[in-house]
């Protein structure tokens, strides 16, 4: 209960105000300390991410690399955690289109290694993996093949498909890290039959 006399607050009232002010000051100090800790954590996270990206880049991550030896190609797919590999031929127009999209994705997904190999340089893999139609893109996670994209049928069946469509296919296979933003959906099975005459047969 607050007592007033001639418009002057009692000592009890003043004491309560001082207690409130002390409490507010303590809360402000705690808030400042928490903000400082959050800032320090964020700085550490940024530094760790920078070092991780730098390490990946030193190992050809963030680049779309052509491999000329099929043994090296196989070593990469078995030793790297995430790998996207494109089997191509330099004379096939659709392979060049696929290259354009993979070049964009490799810059966006540092955690995944992007490589390509000319089918002329990997006869064993062409036979073992049944590469019959180009372009042929495969995804490996921890050395195990996760998906096989043959031609453009599963990418909308058109040369003008968006990079986001290819990104969605690869993300669903687990070889790319999922993003929060929405990506377009494409109907059809990854392993459906391919009869589009625009795809290039390789025999």
UniProtKB/TrEMBL annotation:
Alphabetized InterPro entries for the sequence: Thioredoxin-like_sf (IPR036249), Thioredoxin_domain (IPR013766)
Annotated Polar residues bias: 183-195
Highest taxon of the lineage: Eukaryota
Thioredoxin domain span: 67-152
Disordered: region residues: 180-203
CDD domains for the chain: Phd_like_TxnDC9
PANTHER family: THIOREDOXIN DOMAIN-CONTAINING PROTEIN 9
Record's protein name: Thioredoxin domain-containing protein
Source organism (scientific name): Circinella minor
């Amino acid at each position: 209960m607050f007592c007033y006399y001639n418009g002057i607050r009692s000592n009890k009232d003043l004491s309560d105000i001082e207690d409130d002010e002390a409490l507010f000051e303590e809360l402000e100090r705690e808030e400042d300390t928490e903000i400082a800790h959050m800032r320090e954590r964020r700085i550490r996270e940024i530094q760790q991410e920078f070092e991780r990206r730098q390490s990946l880049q030193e190992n050809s991550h963030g680049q779309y690399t052509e491999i000329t030896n099929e043994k090296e190609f196989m070593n990469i797919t078995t030793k790297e955690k995430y790998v996207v590999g494109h089997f191509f031929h330099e004379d096939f127009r659709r392979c060049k289109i696929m290259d354009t999209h993979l070049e964009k994705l490799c810059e966006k997904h540092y955690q995944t290694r992007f490589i390509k190999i000319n089918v002329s340089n990997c006869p064993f893999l062409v036979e073992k993996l049944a590469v019959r139609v180009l372009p042929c893109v495969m995804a490996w996670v921890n050395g195990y093949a996760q998906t096989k994209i043959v031609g453009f049928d599963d990418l909308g069946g058109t040369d003008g498909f968006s990079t986001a469509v290819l990104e969605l296919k690869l993300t669903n296979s687990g070889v790319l890290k999922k993003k929060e933003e929405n990506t377009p959906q494409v109907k059809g099975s990854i392993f459906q039959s391919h009869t589009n005459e625009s795809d290039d047969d390789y025999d």
